[in-house]
Amino acid sequence: MNSVLDASAVLALLLDEPGAARIEAHLGSGCVSAVNVAEVITKLMEKGFHRQQALGLWSGLGATVVDFTAEQAIETGLLRPATAAAGLSLGDRACLTLAARLGATALTTDRAWARINLGIAVELVR
Fold first, then answer.
1. Up-side HSE of residue 67: CA atoms within 13 Å toward CB?
2. What percent of the chain has pLDDT above 70?
């Protein structure tokens, strides 16, 4: 996998927001952490999508999902001090941890990620 999509990137793609084409180009060689899948479904439900609509959007994406392991959980927790000032969430840190583990680039729409430097490749897609 060359890229790991953050929930914000997946949502931009699903909702055809700015940056969607750039994200779509990474879909075939990218993956998503299971934590970010939960975030995507949560956000779709908060936006008023019905259960079947949210599930249909997600399943239509055809993304490769990577399970969240105990090792990743620990690494994600350890990132908190370095990312707290930028306000990165659990899902954000799970994406970064997976990207680090795979040697991949993390894709996000969240500009706050530009304020951190963890030695993990990050691409802002808009």
1. 3
2. 100
55 backbone φψ class: left, alpha, beta (φ>0; ψ -120 to 50): alpha
Backbone dihedral region of 59: left (phi > 0), alpha (psi from -120 to 50 degrees) or beta?
Answer: alpha
Cα 67–Cα 69–Cα 70 angle in degrees, nearest 5: 160
pTM as predicted: 0.94
Residues 17 and 21: their CA atoms lie apart, in Å, by 9
**Which domains can be identified in the chain, with CATH numbers?**
3-124 (3.40.50.1010)
β-sheet bridge partners, residue 65: 32
